[in-house]
Amino acid sequence: MTSTTPALTQDQMKTQVGEAALAYVVKGQIVGVGTGSTVNKFIDALATIKDEIKGAVSSSVASTERLRALGIPVFDSNEVEDISVYIDGADEIDHRGHMIKGGGAALTREKIVAAQSKRFVCIADASKLVDTLGAFPLPVEVIPMAARSIIRQFAQLGGEGQVREKDGVALVTDNGQHIVDVTGLKISDPRAFEAEVSQWPGVVTVGVFACQKANVCLLGTPSGVQTLTFD
Ligand code: 5RP
Fold it and tell me: Ligand 1 test: best mutation among 11, 17, 39, 112, most atoms within 8 Å of CB?
């Protein structure tokens, strides 16, 4: 009789990649921490080695609260010169490490902490790996008064933008801005796309992470964690 190991659930895959990311944390240093349900698993794992690190720089109010609740010191990014590693999730990641991020509306601070970090380790379950970015609605953080003109500009690229709402009103980010989610895009050149949209007036941050792409992706698959490395 043969016995087969049951495939991991999505939640178990998130737990596994969150725990696997501990191997990239540099002892005695400050770690950059992203936002989202996968990162929450990482934060829980990080708490088990909290005495071996100096603390964290966080990318959102939600992650800051979780880190502090677990006794992990949180530093302001302005207090820290550079960060050895940044651990964060993604909404999509392609085979070169480019990502769409911002499903949790934390993209601006995520990009800031990623830019401050020497290495980006993405933790994601296998559903996030794509050939071309764009099936996930692209989050763009915008100055509220520019939302309509930005939506019109996306329409010229074939995208349909919508202001993200929460409880029937426009969602307000940790930075006091709004999010436009854009469907219908196929982002074949993420670097050029990020460069173009980033300079539109009123765009705070576009959720394409091409300049700040991942160096490593710990991908949770039904049979365990796969490590993808990018140039
Ligand atoms: C938040 C993000 C998250 O990393 C992204 O949305 C993935 O989240 P999850 O791990 O919950 O799927 O970019 O702004």
Answer: 39
